[in-house]
Amino acid sequence: MNQIMTSRSNPVILVADDDDSLRLLMHEALESSGFAVEEAENGVAALAAFDRTQPDVVLLDVMMPEMDGIVACAELRARPAGAHVPVLMVTGLDDMESIKHAYDAGATDFIVKPIKWPMLGYHVRYMLRAARAIVELNHSIEVIQHNAYFDRLTDLPNRNLLCDRLAQAMLVAGRENKSAALILLGLDRFKDINNALGHQAGDHLLQQIGPRLQKLLRQSDTVARLGGDEFAVLMATKTPAQGAMEVARKITKAMEEPFVVGDLQLHVEASLGIAVFPDHGADVDTLIKRADAAMGAAKESRSGYTLYSAHQDKSSTDRLKLFADLRRAITEDRLFLVYQPKIDLQTGCFTGVEALVRWQHPSYGILPPDQFIPLAEQTGLIAPLTELVLQKALSQSHAWQRAGVEINMAVNLSRRNLQNQELPDLIARRLEACEVSPASLTLEITETTVMAAPERAMEVLSRLKKMGLRLSLDDFGTGYSSLAYLKKLPVDELKIDKSFVMTMHAKEEDVAIVRMIIELAHVLGLKVVAEGVETQESLDRLLALGCDLAQGYYISQPISAQDILRFIDSHPIH
Question: Does the structure show a pLDDT above 50 at 5?
């Protein structure tokens, strides 16, 4: 949509018709409806008037001398400013061939002669509102997709985009018998800066890291922020180890220059870890892990930068032991579930729970899922772990039913689960054994789990949907699914990632993103769940934005099955 539309008080309508009397009647009808009107007597004059006035809506007669309306419409669509402007074709023809030609040329809609003059202004105003809504929706999608690949604080590529580029670099390097180097950089004692000066000062410092690194690198190299105080540099070099170590030396030297934060000059040190493809890893996860191990060694030795070597990977033995412990915990049923309530924002009523798995480790105490789910996915334990979680969750649903309470149960699925073609059959057997209705079970998936192998995942999701289960797209806004693909997913709801919700009180841009996601979901006919609600202010803003459901520590932390019944006493079931 052109920029003039958003700044002028009266939208401008361009009317092109070779009939002077009809053009005059259109002018009067539209002007009386509050529009400013420009006129043209044929297609050529219409294009000239469009370039001059940048109208908000164009009315084109189909039959005109010199250039008819269909050709003029096609020419207008070829202009950048005319790509999204509503074009209404005015015609006395009602044959399908004329309509097809006009739509092929880019027409938005038709007005058929004889014109119903009282309705003309309403028709034009409706098309204008629809066009604005489409532009806003496209902008929302662009913002969401940008956030999927770029860090919101520094606008550097984030972990998702770094992994994509690293995978591509490995493919090219393998095909051309070359190498690639990955450098991870972590700031030393960054927490002290946050504690002493506040997070705003810390954020200002982080925003200066990327530009300083980029000055030392080529345009083809990638500087990314992985999160917190960690950054990454991806580069191709003919002598990967030597070239990367030379760059690391330059970065270390550049970091000696103070950073200006407010009135202060801060001296900040960094530790760098280097890993090289293919010497130190043949896949993305391994290379990142080994660069991280090298960075840890550099921090311990205070050497500034270190090239990876096998003895640095201290976690190998511990990881094998943890794997054995997890396998034993699954076999011996040492995992348990807690449940986080969800409420309906409009009524305040309880609507269901999300089941969250915990591990009572004999040495480390209670471990949250992010400390063992990745291990389960990497070692093949995710299938028996998921089966155990489903069994426990559905058994609890059955127990609640016997107590006279129907509670919707949400269970998370991992990337590996969606690649298992037997998953729908497994869930069907569990539902039948526990005497639980499929409508009482919601399966939560993430954008990244679906996009890992979309065709296979779509097949599994379609089968689950046909069984009558509800599907929820979790962590929405942090992945990278396109709108076209999102429309194909058989999901019932979107869950806004907590990173947006938890900062709504401080960042208006996050409020805008949340609003966009809610509007997008509602356009697609989906419910919206906000997770990470930690304040009354966030709850109030979500309610004002039209969000449907919410969960978070302000409502309730994850609690036991018995405590859920007590929670229901204060929040009646919806």
Answer: no
Dist CA 113 CA 94 (whole Å): 9
| Exposure of 393 in the CB half-sphere (CA atoms within 13 A) | 32
Alpha helix positions (H), 150-218 = 159-175, 190-197, 199-214
- Residue with the bigger pLDDT between 413 and 499: it is 413
How confident is the model at residue 141, as a pLDDT?
Answer: 74
User: Is the previous residue joined to 157 through a cis bond, with omega within 30 degrees of 0?
Assistant: no
Question: Do 221 and 233 meet the contact criterion of CB atoms below 8 Å apart?
Answer: yes
Closest CA to 489 of 502, 504, 511, 471: 471
Cα 421 vs. chain centroid, distance in angstroms? 26
Comparing 35-39, 239-243, 541-545, the range with the smallest average pLDDT is 239-243
CATH topology of domain 318-570: TIM Barrel (3.20.20)
Whole-Å CA distances, 505 to 367, 500, 543, 554: 30, 10, 14, 14
How far is it, in rounded angstroms, from Cα 54 to Cα 77? 13
Position 8 confidence tier, pLDDT thresholds 50, 70, 90: low
CATH number of this structure's domain 3-148 = 3.40.50.2300
pLDDT at position 423 over 60: yes
Residue (of 119, 68, 117) closest to 93 by Cα position: 68
Q: What is the DSSP letter of 263?
A: T
Residue 322 CB: number of other CB atoms within 10 A?
19
β-strand pairing of 549-550 with 12-16: unpaired
Predicted confidence (pLDDT) at residue 37 exceeds the cutoff of 50: yes
What CATH number is given for 159-313 in this structure? 3.30.70.270
Task: Give the position of tokens 């908000």.
Answer: 56
Chain mean position to CA 290: 28
* Dist. CA 485–CA 472, nearest whole Å: 15
Yes or no: say if 350 and 568 are a contact pair by the CB < 8 Å rule.
yes
Decide: 199 and 210 in contact? Cβ < 8 Å: no
- In the structure, what pLDDT confidence band is assigned to residue 485 with cuts at 50, 70 and 90? low
Contact 337, 356 (CB under 8 A): yes
Mean pLDDT in the chain? 87
| 3-state SS track over 483-515 | HHHHHHCCCCEEEECHHHHCCCCCCHHHHHHHH
Q: Residue 56: helix, strand or coil by DSSP?
A: coil
* Alpha-carbon span 414 to 25, nearest angstrom: 63
DSSP letter at 150 equals B
pLDDT band at 356, cuts 50/70/90?
very high
For the chain, domain boundaries: 3-148, 159-313, 318-570
Number of Cα atoms under 13 Å in the Cβ half of residue 335? 26
Residues 6+ apart with CB under 8 A from 377: 414, 415, 416
Instruction: Give the distance, in angstroms, between the CA of residue 20 and the centroid of all CA atoms in the same chain.
Output: 52
Task: Give pLDDT tens digits for 436-475.
Answer: 999 999 999 987 677 656 777 888 999 999 999 999 998 8
